[in-house]
TrEMBL record:
Record-given protein name: Rhomboid family intramembrane serine protease
Keyword annotations of the record: Membrane, Transmembrane, Transmembrane helix
Compartments where found: Membrane
Segments passing through the bilayer: 102-126, 138-156, 163-181, 187-203
Membrane-topology descriptor: Multi-pass membrane protein
InterPro entries noted in UniProt: Rhomboid-like_sf (IPR035952), Rhomboid_2 (IPR046862)
Coiled-coil stretches: none
Gene3D superfamilies (UniProt xref): Rhomboid-like
Length: 221
């Protein structure tokens, strides 16, 4: 009976946590469905399918709004479970503390601005002859820009002095790739992190600063 009670309480805690971050887990559910769909495609069809939903220069010039939305609904590589962990650790934490609307706004700003600036940098590289013209139609999908923005904005949720260590780690993770042969996605991740850090006005007064030594409470359902 005791074991049954513990299992019931654990399941109730999981349900409560999921309900506390509806946007995060709805998005994660969409990614699960699209990832399963990818595993049923042939490699040739998959590449063509994803390229039409990619935020590359060609698609951005033709259907910017459509591809900006569609590109955030697919995972390049087809591995869903690591994102389930990352969404639970970062996205759910941010949504619970900022509220769904502000969490979503940070995601949108990071995804859109990082995409446009990184693709602008790629266009400049192509025009300067640094990158090949084939990069106009490169594959660029995924949710990592929004994730980088959320990882960065969570800096303001941590108390000092631990905040400074977290901030240093964020900057190291997203700056280090720029020091040796950076790609346009490296630029995008760096920009997304800066966007997240720039979202302090959205965070101020809406988040409870947390001590990393303390366990975050799970809201009761």
């Amino acid at each position: 009976m005791k074991r049954h009670t513990r299992v019931h309480r654990a399941l109730a805690a999981v349900r409560s946590y999921v309900r506390s971050a509806p946007g995060t887990y709805a998005w994660l559910g969409v990614l699960f469905v699209t990832t399963v769909a990818l595993h049923h495609m042939s490699p040739e069809f998959e590449q063509d399918f994803l390229r039409q939903r990619s935020t590359n220069l060609h698609e951005l010039s033709q259907n910017p709004v459509r591809v900006l939305v569609a590109s955030a609904m697919w995972i390049d590589g087809g591995r869903w479970l690591p994102y389930a962990v990352l969404y639970t650790v970062f996205h759910a934490s941010a949504e619970r503390r900022l509220g769904t609307a502000r969490w979503l706004l940070v995601c949108v700003l990071a995804h859109v601005l990082a995409t446009l600036i990184s693709e602008g940098a790629l266009l400049w590289a192509i025009e300067q002859g640094v990158a090949p013209h084939s990069e106009y139609n490169t594959l660029d999908i995924g949710v990592s820009y929004a994730l980088a923005g959320i990882v960065a904005v969570l800096t303001y949720e941590i108390r000092t002095p631990w905040r400074y260590g977290y901030l240093a780690a964020v900057l190291l993770v997203y700056t280090l790739p720029l020091t040796s042969g950076p790609t346009f996605t490296d630029v995008g991740h760096f920009v997304a992190a800066l966007v997240g850090l720039g979202c302090l006005p959205l965070v101020r007064g809406r988040t409870q600063v947390r001590n990393p030594k303390e366990t975050a409470p799970v809201p009761r359902g």
